[in-house]
Every structure is written in C-alpha cells, then in structure tokens.
Amino acid sequence: MASIEITRDELVVRIHGWDKVLAMRSTLRIPLSRVRAARVRPKEANFDDVIVETWRGVGTYVPHKIAAGLIYLADGPSFYDVRNPARAIAVDLDRENMRHVVVQIDNETPEEAVRRITAAIAAPVSIASRPNAANGIDG
Q1: Is the predicted pLDDT of residue 26 greater than 70, yes or no?
Q2: Model-level pTM?
Q3: Please, are residues 87 and 110 in contact by the beta-carbon 8 Å criterion?
Q4: Best label site of 47, 104, 108, 138, fewest CB within 10 Å?
Q5: Mean pLDDT over all residues of the chain?
Q6: For every residue of 43-75, which 3-state class applies, written as one string?
C-alpha cells in the first residue's frame, strides 16, 4: 500500500510495509509538471486484465493477488503497488520511461487523493512563489 504526499513541485509516492520489498522501491518522486491526470479506481488497477509482459519489469506479480514494481502494459511501463483495485488510483504521466503510477491508497480515500493531486496540478506556479525570485536567482 502507498500514501501520497504533495510538495510545491513534486508528487511523492511512499510505499509501505512489505510492499517496499515486493516493489523493490520505497519512494517515487515525480515532478508535478509531468503529471497529466489522476483517476479513481482505474481499469488498470485490475492488473490481471492489463499486464502484457509478466516476465519483464522489476518487482512482483502474483496473479489475482498483487502487482508491485515496474510492470509492462500495452502503452508502456507503469509502476504498480496494488492488491485491492477498489482502493487504487492511477496517476497518468508525461514520461517515456513510466506511463502510469497505479497504487493502492492506505491513509485516505482514493477520491481524496485524486482531489489533492488534481488541485496540485491545476494550481499555477508563479515566479513570485519561488525562493530567491525577488533577487533574480532561480532556486
């Protein structure tokens, strides 16, 4: 299972418990500029229906049980940490090396997580909100 954290310019996905071992990853850091959309209970969460190459990738796939780690779908590689598709969200990315992040949320409802992500990617980043913007230093 995972939790979502949003900073000023990043979406941080933290993997919890044994899923860190199964996914071979504990944290994903994604620039908000690369996030295109977030969806509740996406069709990709039903991993048995969408995984095209079970032998490729890094992580764990047990049919009908869990998909964790880098998994290959028809549209390219995606990161998964899903046991229960009803608690999952998908984050669609503008990246060649990863098309989606599909994770089961454990500390809030999937609807709340998607609302927060959608609000973060819709919020414009102004130059005045950057540190050192007043003195012309881009930090």
Answers
A1: yes
A2: 0.85
A3: yes
A4: 138
A5: 88
A6: HHHCHHHHCCEEEEEEEEEECCCEEEEEEEECC
